[in-house]
Amino acid sequence: MALALRGYAPVGPGRRGAQVIEFGTRHQPSYAWSFDRGDGLANVGYGELLHEDRPAPTRAQLLERLEALLPDATESGRHWVGHHLPLSTARWRLPTGRVLLVGDAACLVNPLTGEGIHYAVATGIAAGRAAAAALRDRRPEGAGERYARATHRILLPHLRHTALAARLARSTRVIEAGLRASAAHQRVFDDFVELGLARGRLTPTVALGLGRAFLASIRPSGRPQEPA
To answer: Would you identify the CATH topology of the domain 2-85?
Structure first.
């Protein structure tokens, strides 16, 4: 489970016309964002993974952590709303009854990004098709099983990859290596976008990019660099 807060505030200096994401360093995984809407306001927010061994952050703490990562992002902000995000897992399963759950209601929130639009659209389409087919066959009780089969085929391999990536992302070193690899190679960046916003997977390109980023942080001898 994650917790996120979002509001709207005047676009900050240097963020006009930009989509800004700043990853947290103290609470992993976490990030703050500022997305210019084009009307003088930005969609700004902050989210982080919740942990069983510590209490959930308060509204004030979420705003404080957002401000720490993106200074002045909360100034004159309004319409602040927060919500828990049920993150998807590698063992994701759907009930097969007459109620078809989609999107967030089906615990389909990407554990890397907190994104859920792709899942909501994909499962919404699958649920509609399953319901229509069940009614056509005059077997409404079969809609749940039909829908579960369709969504597992579409999403389950992807969810196994995002679950693994989310575990790796709890390491600051992995996040930093991923950012370096994405900046250096467009294909790595594109594969990460697919993994975090659509139904991509951890590709050989991503693995190679991460490996190169790790190697670049050590000396040619293979021994870690001494701290400056």
So the answer is: D-Amino Acid Oxidase; Chain A, domain 2 (3.30.9)
pTM of the model: 0.82
End-to-end Cα spacing for the chain: 38
Provide DSSP, 118-165: HHHHHHHHHHHHHHHHHHHTT-GGGHHHHHHHHHHHHHHHHHHHHHHH
- pLDDT bucket at 226, cuts 50 / 70 / 90: very low
Contacts of 79 (CB under 8 A, 6+ apart): 7, 8
pLDDT of amino acid 219: 53
- Cα–Cα distance between 147 and 1 in angstroms, integer? 25
pLDDT in tens, 80-129: 999 999 999 998 988 888 899 999 999 999 998 899 999 999 999 999 99
Q: Which pairs with CB-CB distance under 8 Å and at least 24 residues apart come from 204-211? A: 206/181, 209/178, 209/181, 209/182, 209/184, 209/185, 210/174, 210/177, 210/178, 210/181
For 23-34, b/e burial (b = at least 16 CB within 10 A) is bbeebbbbbbbb
What are 20-63's pLDDT values in tens digits? 999 887 777 889 999 999 999 999 999 999 988 888 999 999 99
Tell me the average pLDDT of the chain.
90
Instruction: List, by residue range, all CATH 3.30.9.10 domains of the chain.
Output: 2-85
